[in-house]
Amino acid sequence: MSTTVLVINSGSSSIKYQLIEPEEGVVVASGLVERIGEAAGLLRHTFEGVDTRLTEPVADHGAGLRRVLELFAEVGPDLGAAGIVAVGHRVVQGGARYSGPALVDEKVLADIEELIPLAPLHNPPNLRGIQVARELLPDVPHVAVFDTAFFSDLPDAAATYALDREVAKRYRVRRYGAHGTSHQYVSRTAATVVGRPLEELRQVVLHLGNGASASAVVGGRAVDTSMGMTPLEGLVMGTRTGDIDPAVIFHLSRNAGFTIDEIDDLFNRRSGLKGLSGQNDMREVHALVADGDAGARLALDVYAHRLRKYVGAYAAVMGGLDVLSFTAGIGENDDIVRAEALRGLEFLGIELDAARNTGRLSEPKVVSTDGSRVTVLVVPTKEEQEIARQTVSLL
Ligand code: ADP
Q: Where is ATP annotated to bind (predicted)?
């Protein structure tokens, strides 16, 4: 009988899940519950190529997960027969404490709760997901896999803000990063694709989804990353500013009468591609550019300029660059963004191959020329499979 892990990603109004055979990374079944707490909830469960879709109210996360387990029983696969050995949970913020996956117990739950001030949008639903899953699946171990873990031992010089030390220490202000599971998976996979030992490589990973982050990885260890205390810092994102002068906050507060909550909303939900072009989806931005829209053109230019800066900065941090990988929705699918982000970086030894770079890619692939000193890759991220792998690694 095969062994499977149920991977759960519990968000504020959704639960996403995959049942995975961790050895081969095979997804046996997957699905999601959306609009939890709204009048019409949505459920989707996929098994053996068949999509089951339902619309019904889902009161809360407990009710949502109960329906998921019912769907497994009704549509399949039977979880017992599928050999489920553990549940792996995505948790966004593990602070400086967790450098790897953790077997969930009362202490781990208390830590996730205690870290809520550092991730007020994410840790509460993550915690809720673990609690209800433990109640409903009490006979298997539950493992928390933290999005910050890969960055938990960033060098001090990269993790530290130049802020009053006492204030920083007291309020735990430092750079924690995010998307760590993806950066870890992609950097490890990239080494396999280029056929060189991970230990030898200086890598940049560009995770470009709705949220976006860059990391510098030396010998398999993260030495810098673009997200900071929260996912707001760094690259331009779908709706987030990324890097911005903090004095903009003082200005908007003192001279424009914005409240802190309004600025939070502005920076996190009404900026980035959306703020510049009106659209947070990169495909829509391209459509506007094709129509001659100046705001969208500028959005794309700002997006690519920021990427280029980070690639150059990380090459400097690492003293060189061997492999650069693109991943996530935009990184995997958008050849225009890949080309614009790397334009002018030939001096670093980066030469994209226009023909190889074309089109959407679902398997890892080299998109640089044979003569390029830096190997440029597209590596589709598989965060759930990485969570499943880390979950069983702990058992
Ligand atoms: P997240 O998991 O952070 O919500 P994804 O990794 O799914 O995000 O990435 C979402 C982004 O990927 C969107 O901006 C979307 O426009 C972009 N994207 C998805 N498919 C394509 C495509 N074929 N071409 C360009 N961009 C794409």
A: 16, 207-211, 281-283, 329-333
